[in-house]
Amino acid sequence: MKRRMGALLAAALLCLSGCAPSGSGEGETLRIGVAVYKGSDTYITNMTQAMEEAAEHWSGETGRRVQISLSDAQENQNTQNEQIDRFLSLGYDVLCVNLVDRTDAARVIGKARKADVPVVFFNREPVQEDLESWEKVYYVGSDARQSAQLQARIVLELWEREPAALDKNGDGVLQYAMLEGESRHQDAMIRTEVAVQTLRDAGVPLERVESGIANWERSQADVLTEGWLLERPDIELILCNNDDMALGAADAVERLGLDLGNIVGIDGTPQGLAAVEEGRLLGTVIMDYAAHGQAIFDLARALSDGEEPEGLEDAEGGVIRIPMHIQRAETEPFGFSTRNR
User: Fold this and answer.
1) Number of domains in the chain
2) Is 319 inside a domain boundary?
Protein backbone atom coordinates (compact mmCIF):
# COMPACT_ATOMS: atom_id res chain seq x y z
CA MET A 1 0.00 0.00 0.00
CA LYS A 2 2.84 2.42 0.89
CA ARG A 3 4.48 1.79 -2.45
CA ARG A 4 1.18 2.32 -4.27
CA MET A 5 0.63 5.62 -2.45
CA GLY A 6 4.12 6.74 -3.40
CA ALA A 7 3.41 5.97 -7.05
CA LEU A 8 0.15 7.87 -6.91
CA LEU A 9 1.92 10.87 -5.38
CA ALA A 10 4.60 10.79 -8.03
CA ALA A 11 1.96 10.86 -10.76
CA ALA A 12 -0.26 13.47 -9.15
CA LEU A 13 -1.20 16.39 -11.36
CA LEU A 14 -1.52 19.79 -9.75
CA CYS A 15 -3.66 21.78 -12.19
CA LEU A 16 -4.08 25.53 -11.89
CA SER A 17 -7.11 27.17 -13.57
CA GLY A 18 -8.04 23.98 -15.35
CA CYS A 19 -6.36 21.62 -17.80
CA ALA A 20 -6.29 21.64 -21.57
CA PRO A 21 -4.44 20.01 -24.48
CA SER A 22 -0.72 20.57 -24.81
CA GLY A 23 0.68 23.70 -26.39
CA SER A 24 2.47 26.89 -25.51
CA GLY A 25 0.85 29.35 -27.84
CA GLU A 26 -1.42 32.18 -26.76
CA GLY A 27 -4.63 30.90 -25.20
CA GLU A 28 -3.36 27.34 -24.84
CA THR A 29 -2.48 25.66 -21.57
CA LEU A 30 1.11 26.02 -20.41
CA ARG A 31 2.26 22.61 -19.16
CA ILE A 32 5.22 22.44 -16.80
CA GLY A 33 6.67 19.17 -15.53
CA VAL A 34 8.36 19.54 -12.13
CA ALA A 35 10.60 16.68 -10.98
CA VAL A 36 11.84 16.83 -7.37
CA TYR A 37 14.33 14.59 -5.61
CA LYS A 38 12.15 14.06 -2.52
CA GLY A 39 8.66 15.40 -1.95
CA SER A 40 8.94 15.35 1.83
CA ASP A 41 11.84 17.82 1.90
CA THR A 42 10.50 20.89 3.73
CA TYR A 43 12.42 23.47 1.71
CA ILE A 44 11.58 21.86 -1.64
CA THR A 45 7.92 21.65 -0.66
CA ASN A 46 7.86 25.36 0.18
CA MET A 47 9.62 26.20 -3.06
CA THR A 48 7.27 24.22 -5.30
CA GLN A 49 4.25 25.67 -3.51
CA ALA A 50 5.64 29.14 -4.19
CA MET A 51 6.03 28.19 -7.84
CA GLU A 52 2.39 27.07 -7.98
CA GLU A 53 1.28 30.33 -6.37
CA ALA A 54 3.30 32.31 -8.92
CA ALA A 55 1.67 30.34 -11.72
CA GLU A 56 -1.80 30.89 -10.28
CA HIS A 57 -1.19 34.63 -9.99
CA TRP A 58 0.08 34.85 -13.57
CA SER A 59 -2.85 32.81 -14.81
CA GLY A 60 -5.26 35.15 -13.05
CA GLU A 61 -3.61 38.18 -14.62
CA THR A 62 -3.34 36.83 -18.16
CA GLY A 63 -6.32 34.48 -18.35
CA ARG A 64 -4.04 31.75 -19.63
CA ARG A 65 -4.27 28.32 -18.07
CA VAL A 66 -1.30 26.64 -16.38
CA GLN A 67 -0.86 22.99 -15.53
CA ILE A 68 1.96 22.09 -13.15
CA SER A 69 2.58 18.36 -12.75
CA LEU A 70 4.76 17.36 -9.81
CA SER A 71 6.69 14.09 -9.61
CA ASP A 72 8.49 12.76 -6.51
CA ALA A 73 11.56 10.61 -7.20
CA GLN A 74 11.87 9.60 -3.53
CA GLU A 75 15.66 9.94 -3.77
CA ASN A 76 15.99 7.53 -6.70
CA GLN A 77 17.60 8.87 -9.87
CA ASN A 78 16.32 5.99 -12.00
CA THR A 79 12.79 6.79 -10.86
CA GLN A 80 13.32 10.44 -11.70
CA ASN A 81 14.64 9.55 -15.16
CA GLU A 82 11.47 7.57 -15.81
CA GLN A 83 9.32 10.47 -14.61
CA ILE A 84 11.16 12.86 -16.92
CA ASP A 85 10.70 10.42 -19.81
CA ARG A 86 6.97 10.49 -19.11
CA PHE A 87 6.83 14.28 -19.10
CA LEU A 88 8.61 14.32 -22.46
CA SER A 89 6.42 11.60 -23.97
CA LEU A 90 3.32 13.58 -22.94
CA GLY A 91 4.57 16.69 -24.68
CA TYR A 92 5.15 19.01 -21.74
CA ASP A 93 6.34 22.49 -22.68
CA VAL A 94 9.17 22.79 -20.16
CA LEU A 95 10.89 20.74 -17.45
CA CYS A 96 11.87 22.03 -14.01
CA VAL A 97 14.22 19.54 -12.37
CA ASN A 98 15.56 19.18 -8.83
CA LEU A 99 18.05 16.39 -9.50
CA VAL A 100 18.53 13.41 -7.24
CA ASP A 101 22.08 13.10 -8.55
CA ARG A 102 23.58 16.25 -10.07
CA THR A 103 25.97 14.14 -12.14
CA ASP A 104 22.99 12.84 -14.13
CA ALA A 105 22.23 16.27 -15.59
CA ALA A 106 23.80 15.45 -18.95
CA ARG A 107 21.41 12.55 -19.45
CA VAL A 108 18.39 14.74 -18.67
CA ILE A 109 19.65 17.51 -20.95
CA GLY A 110 20.26 15.05 -23.79
CA LYS A 111 16.69 13.74 -23.65
CA ALA A 112 15.18 17.21 -23.35
CA ARG A 113 17.29 18.55 -26.20
CA LYS A 114 16.19 15.73 -28.46
CA ALA A 115 12.57 16.65 -27.72
CA ASP A 116 13.38 20.40 -27.87
CA VAL A 117 11.98 20.96 -24.37
CA PRO A 118 13.75 23.62 -22.25
CA VAL A 119 15.09 22.62 -18.82
CA VAL A 120 15.28 24.69 -15.64
CA PHE A 121 17.34 22.98 -12.94
CA PHE A 122 16.91 24.19 -9.39
CA ASN A 123 18.31 23.65 -5.88
CA ARG A 124 20.90 21.07 -7.00
CA GLU A 125 23.31 22.69 -9.41
CA PRO A 126 24.73 20.75 -12.36
CA VAL A 127 28.35 21.31 -13.31
CA GLN A 128 29.00 24.34 -15.50
CA GLU A 129 29.89 22.17 -18.49
CA ASP A 130 26.38 20.71 -18.47
CA LEU A 131 24.74 24.10 -18.08
CA GLU A 132 26.64 25.43 -21.06
CA SER A 133 25.89 22.42 -23.27
CA TRP A 134 22.61 23.86 -24.62
CA GLU A 135 21.13 27.35 -24.81
CA LYS A 136 17.81 26.16 -23.37
CA VAL A 137 19.28 25.01 -20.04
CA TYR A 138 19.27 27.20 -16.93
CA TYR A 139 19.78 26.91 -13.19
CA VAL A 140 18.03 28.82 -10.40
CA GLY A 141 19.54 28.76 -6.93
CA SER A 142 21.59 30.50 -4.26
CA ASP A 143 25.34 30.28 -3.83
CA ALA A 144 26.25 27.53 -1.35
CA ARG A 145 29.58 29.13 -0.44
CA GLN A 146 27.99 32.43 0.44
CA SER A 147 25.23 30.75 2.44
CA ALA A 148 27.97 29.14 4.56
CA GLN A 149 29.77 32.46 4.93
CA LEU A 150 26.55 34.05 6.16
CA GLN A 151 25.98 31.20 8.59
CA ALA A 152 29.45 31.80 9.98
CA ARG A 153 28.70 35.51 10.20
CA ILE A 154 25.83 34.81 12.61
CA VAL A 155 28.26 33.08 14.95
CA LEU A 156 31.09 35.55 14.40
CA GLU A 157 29.04 38.61 15.31
CA LEU A 158 27.96 37.03 18.58
CA TRP A 159 31.55 35.94 19.30
CA GLU A 160 32.83 39.45 18.77
CA ARG A 161 30.04 41.07 20.78
CA GLU A 162 29.61 38.59 23.62
CA PRO A 163 32.06 35.65 23.50
CA ALA A 164 30.82 34.24 26.81
CA ALA A 165 27.44 33.59 25.17
CA LEU A 166 29.20 30.98 23.03
CA ASP A 167 32.19 29.95 25.15
CA LYS A 168 30.16 28.49 28.00
CA ASN A 169 33.09 26.79 29.75
CA GLY A 170 35.36 29.81 29.44
CA ASP A 171 38.31 27.95 27.97
CA GLY A 172 38.70 30.39 25.07
CA VAL A 173 37.86 27.70 22.51
CA LEU A 174 34.50 27.11 20.84
CA GLN A 175 33.61 23.40 20.99
CA TYR A 176 31.23 22.70 18.10
CA ALA A 177 29.37 19.89 16.36
CA MET A 178 28.39 19.75 12.68
CA LEU A 179 25.20 18.24 11.23
CA GLU A 180 25.75 17.55 7.54
CA GLY A 181 23.38 16.87 4.66
CA GLU A 182 23.87 14.05 2.15
CA SER A 183 27.40 12.73 1.88
CA ARG A 184 27.77 13.45 -1.86
CA HIS A 185 25.66 16.59 -2.09
CA GLN A 186 27.81 19.50 -3.23
CA ASP A 187 25.96 22.05 -1.09
CA ALA A 188 26.43 19.92 2.03
CA MET A 189 30.16 19.63 1.43
CA ILE A 190 30.56 23.34 0.69
CA ARG A 191 28.46 24.47 3.65
CA THR A 192 30.35 22.18 5.99
CA GLU A 193 33.80 23.29 4.91
CA VAL A 194 33.23 26.98 4.25
CA ALA A 195 31.34 27.81 7.44
CA VAL A 196 34.15 26.43 9.58
CA GLN A 197 36.92 27.93 7.48
CA THR A 198 35.25 31.34 7.56
CA LEU A 199 35.21 31.27 11.36
CA ARG A 200 38.82 30.10 11.54
CA ASP A 201 39.92 32.83 9.11
CA ALA A 202 38.21 35.37 11.36
CA GLY A 203 40.28 34.17 14.32
CA VAL A 204 37.67 32.13 16.19
CA PRO A 205 39.37 29.24 18.05
CA LEU A 206 37.42 26.10 17.17
CA GLU A 207 37.43 22.49 18.28
CA ARG A 208 35.21 20.05 16.43
CA VAL A 209 34.02 17.48 18.92
CA GLU A 210 31.31 15.77 16.84
CA SER A 211 30.08 15.59 13.25
CA GLY A 212 27.69 13.37 11.38
CA ILE A 213 25.43 13.01 8.36
CA ALA A 214 21.71 13.48 8.99
CA ASN A 215 20.64 13.66 5.31
CA TRP A 216 18.74 16.96 5.74
CA GLU A 217 16.29 15.11 8.06
CA ARG A 218 14.96 16.49 11.33
CA SER A 219 14.46 13.07 12.89
CA GLN A 220 17.97 11.86 12.03
CA ALA A 221 19.49 15.06 13.42
CA ASP A 222 17.48 14.63 16.60
CA VAL A 223 18.86 11.14 17.21
CA LEU A 224 22.45 12.13 16.39
CA THR A 225 22.37 15.22 18.57
CA GLU A 226 20.93 13.40 21.56
CA GLY A 227 23.73 10.85 21.43
CA TRP A 228 26.36 13.57 21.11
CA LEU A 229 25.08 15.62 24.01
CA LEU A 230 24.88 12.60 26.27
CA GLU A 231 28.53 11.86 25.52
CA ARG A 232 29.79 15.43 25.14
CA PRO A 233 27.78 17.89 27.24
CA ASP A 234 30.54 20.45 26.59
CA ILE A 235 29.25 21.15 23.05
CA GLU A 236 28.76 24.92 22.77
CA LEU A 237 27.65 25.33 19.16
CA ILE A 238 25.88 23.18 16.57
CA LEU A 239 26.26 24.16 12.92
CA CYS A 240 23.67 22.60 10.62
CA ASN A 241 23.58 22.42 6.83
CA ASN A 242 19.83 23.15 6.83
CA ASP A 243 16.96 24.23 9.06
CA ASP A 244 15.33 20.82 9.39
CA MET A 245 18.49 19.40 10.95
CA ALA A 246 18.80 22.49 13.16
CA LEU A 247 15.25 21.87 14.36
CA GLY A 248 16.13 18.24 15.06
CA ALA A 249 19.08 19.38 17.15
CA ALA A 250 16.81 21.79 19.03
CA ASP A 251 14.34 18.97 19.66
CA ALA A 252 17.08 16.89 21.30
CA VAL A 253 18.28 19.83 23.39
CA GLU A 254 14.78 20.46 24.70
CA ARG A 255 14.11 16.81 25.44
CA LEU A 256 17.32 16.61 27.46
CA GLY A 257 16.46 19.81 29.29
CA LEU A 258 19.70 21.54 28.32
CA ASP A 259 20.39 25.25 27.90
CA LEU A 260 21.87 25.31 24.41
CA GLY A 261 20.40 27.80 21.97
CA ASN A 262 23.57 28.17 19.88
CA ILE A 263 22.21 26.19 16.92
CA VAL A 264 22.43 27.68 13.44
CA GLY A 265 20.65 26.54 10.29
CA ILE A 266 20.39 27.43 6.62
CA ASP A 267 17.18 27.75 4.53
CA GLY A 268 14.88 30.17 6.32
CA THR A 269 11.89 27.84 6.28
CA PRO A 270 8.78 29.04 8.15
CA GLN A 271 9.52 26.48 10.86
CA GLY A 272 13.15 27.57 11.09
CA LEU A 273 12.25 31.25 11.31
CA ALA A 274 9.69 30.52 14.02
CA ALA A 275 12.36 28.68 16.00
CA VAL A 276 14.71 31.66 15.68
CA GLU A 277 11.98 33.97 16.93
CA GLU A 278 11.35 31.64 19.87
CA GLY A 279 15.05 31.51 20.71
CA ARG A 280 15.37 27.80 19.98
CA LEU A 281 17.86 28.60 17.20
CA LEU A 282 20.55 31.26 17.22
CA GLY A 283 19.84 32.09 13.59
CA THR A 284 19.40 30.93 10.02
CA VAL A 285 20.30 32.01 6.49
CA ILE A 286 17.16 32.82 4.55
CA MET A 287 17.35 31.26 1.10
CA ASP A 288 13.99 32.84 0.15
CA TYR A 289 12.02 29.92 -1.22
CA ALA A 290 9.30 32.28 -2.47
CA ALA A 291 11.79 34.15 -4.66
CA HIS A 292 13.13 30.83 -5.94
CA GLY A 293 9.64 29.62 -6.84
CA GLN A 294 8.79 32.87 -8.60
CA ALA A 295 12.06 32.88 -10.57
CA ILE A 296 11.65 29.24 -11.60
CA PHE A 297 8.13 29.85 -12.89
CA ASP A 298 9.02 33.11 -14.67
CA LEU A 299 11.95 31.45 -16.40
CA ALA A 300 9.97 28.33 -17.32
CA ARG A 301 7.14 30.41 -18.76
CA ALA A 302 9.46 32.55 -20.88
CA LEU A 303 11.36 29.52 -22.20
CA SER A 304 8.18 27.62 -23.02
CA ASP A 305 6.97 30.56 -25.10
CA GLY A 306 10.29 30.94 -26.89
CA GLU A 307 10.91 34.35 -25.31
CA GLU A 308 14.22 35.76 -24.17
CA PRO A 309 14.10 35.37 -20.37
CA GLU A 310 14.22 38.65 -18.45
CA GLY A 311 16.61 39.36 -15.61
CA LEU A 312 19.52 37.37 -17.01
CA GLU A 313 21.73 40.34 -17.87
CA ASP A 314 24.04 39.60 -14.94
CA ALA A 315 23.64 35.84 -15.00
CA GLU A 316 26.74 33.80 -15.71
CA GLY A 317 26.53 30.63 -17.76
CA GLY A 318 22.74 30.39 -17.52
CA VAL A 319 22.72 30.68 -13.72
CA ILE A 320 20.31 32.91 -11.78
CA ARG A 321 21.36 33.53 -8.19
CA ILE A 322 18.69 34.35 -5.62
CA PRO A 323 19.63 36.86 -2.89
CA MET A 324 20.06 35.64 0.69
CA HIS A 325 19.91 37.31 4.08
CA ILE A 326 20.30 36.45 7.72
CA GLN A 327 17.79 36.17 10.53
CA ARG A 328 19.18 36.07 14.06
CA ALA A 329 17.42 35.73 17.37
CA GLU A 330 16.21 39.06 18.76
CA THR A 331 17.66 41.06 15.87
CA GLU A 332 16.49 42.55 12.63
CA PRO A 333 17.61 40.68 9.49
CA PHE A 334 20.49 42.16 7.57
CA GLY A 335 21.14 41.45 3.95
CA PHE A 336 23.63 40.07 1.50
CA SER A 337 22.91 39.23 -2.11
CA THR A 338 24.56 38.39 -5.38
CA ARG A 339 23.61 37.33 -8.88
CA ASN A 340 27.04 36.06 -9.88
CA ARG A 341 29.34 33.33 -8.72
Assistant:
1) 2
2) no
- Nearest CA to 121 out of 108, 78, 185, 290 is that of 108
Give the helix/strand (H/E) hosting 174.
strand 174-180
| Residue range 20-71, pLDDT digits in tens | 334 445 568 999 999 999 999 999 999 999 999 999 999 999 999 999 999 9
| 305-333 pLDDT, tens digit each | 888 776 655 456 789 999 999 999 874 43
Interaxial angle between packed helices 218-231 and 243-256, expressed in degrees from 0 to 180 and rounded to the nearest 10: 40
Q: What is the largest CA-CA distance in the chain?
A: 68
117 burial type by CB count under 10 A (0-12 exposed, 13-18 middle, 19+ buried) = buried
Contacts of 185 (CB under 8 A, 6+ apart): 124
Residue 90 is assigned to a structural domain of this protein: yes
Q: Are residues 11 and 136 in the same domain?
A: yes
> What are the φ/ψ torsions at residue 140 (nearest 5 degrees)?
-120, 125
Nearest CA to 32 out of 6, 58, 8 is that of 58
What CATH number is given to the structural domain containing 244?
3.40.50.2300
**Residue 46 φ/ψ, nearest 5 degrees:** -60, -40
Provide the 8-state DSSP code for 17.
S
